[in-house]
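Lecture notes, unit on protein representations.

Consider one protein chain, 122 amino acids long.
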Amino acid sequence: MKHIAAVSLVSLALATPLQAQDDPPSLMERGAQLFFEGLMEEMSPALKDMAKLMEEAGPALQDFMTQIGPKLRGVLEEVEDWSVYEAPEVLPNGDVIIRRKPDVPEIPDAPSQHEQTPQIDL
């Protein structure tokens, strides 16, 4: 949303003739100015609605991220290379499957926790 507003304001500023010019604006300049003024007028209600929607949805999105964030972080840390997996697929029962691509070589199994810990004789 910020990008749209910034682009619109920059475009409007570029379309507006400079105050230092003594010549009246050309037809092209006046046309561009009218175009961008109309565009801003048309976009204003949509931008206001979008801002209102973000105000309403903001707390719910923040709550969602505080709940799902740690779990998602755990999954992201566990997977080393996302390029070896296909896009997620949602099954009719709601389950989500992320399949490994068939042409990718298998990763050797990581040593178990028991194998990684050195043994100490007592």
